[in-house]
Amino acid sequence: MKKIEVRCPSCAGRGFIEVSENEVEKAKRGVFAINVSEGIICDHSFVAYIDKNFTVRDTFMTDFQLELPEKIPKKSIEPKDSAQHDSINVSLIKFNLLASLIAYIIRAILHKRKIVLIFDQPFMLDDVRRFFDYITRKSFKNELIVISEDQYNSESYNDYIVFNSKDVIKDEDGIINIKKLGVERALVQKFIEEYEPIPSLISLQNGLQKVYELSETIADIVKGLKKKEEIYSKKIIKDLSKIHNVKIKLTYLAFLIEIVENYFQVEVPKSSKVSNFLGTL
Known about the structure:
By secondary structure, this protein is of the alpha/beta class. Among the domains are: about 1-60, no CATH class; about 210-280. The protein is about 35% helix and about 15% strand. The protein has helices at about 20-25, 85, 90-95, 100-110, 125-135, 180-195, 195-225, 235-245, 250-260, and strands at about 1-5, 15-20, 30-35, 45-50, 55-60, 115-120, 145, 160-165, 170. Strand 6, helix 5 and strand 7 (about 145) form a beta-alpha-beta unit. The longest helix has 27 residues, at about 195-225. The protein is globular. It starts with a strand and ends in a 19-residue tail after the last helix.
């Protein structure tokens, strides 16, 4: 067993965990995920990703109470080889892109924001670009620019959310809030922890497509409301179950409502005449 120092991504608390050297060595994708339970380092639970040099590559908040719906999108693809799959080095992406960074960028895309990623490995710029294009190809349009540090000019990207390979550089509207990354975290964690490259890629693509289809349906429902017609969270969940054959929780519905308002730009009524739609979430 090897002792490694880790830092909680929520409260920055530090402490040590023990990992099996054999398990790390056997990690198929070069990064070993270990769940750090509440009480070991601090009051939070999170995932630590350890590479084969026993370096902590990333720590990532997790929400074990969050259940993602398992319904498969109508247009989902089968996990088979294709030119698009072959053009993406999934193992390279997993090893060099922090899980938290992927979640941040996904959140920015879901909020329909323009994004700049300043990446410190120029040879990977095209790989990163193809990765995000692929996972959103049947759902959300993304306005992501991936550039090297010497290509970045802050004056040219005034209305962009800006990331580097490790952190958020500019987010004037506070879109990237670690406490609001529940579904994004769950999607990315599923992607990172799936050992097989192509199934993990398809899983993330399908997860985002599912989010798009469900939020688009909610937007259509809201746009079709009659004047002064009341709407209930339970009715929305029932309608989604009927239309998409999927069961969702209130926490997931709240996430979808954010997308309806920010990506589809459809205001969900919140007046007292609307039975406090979000009040039950």
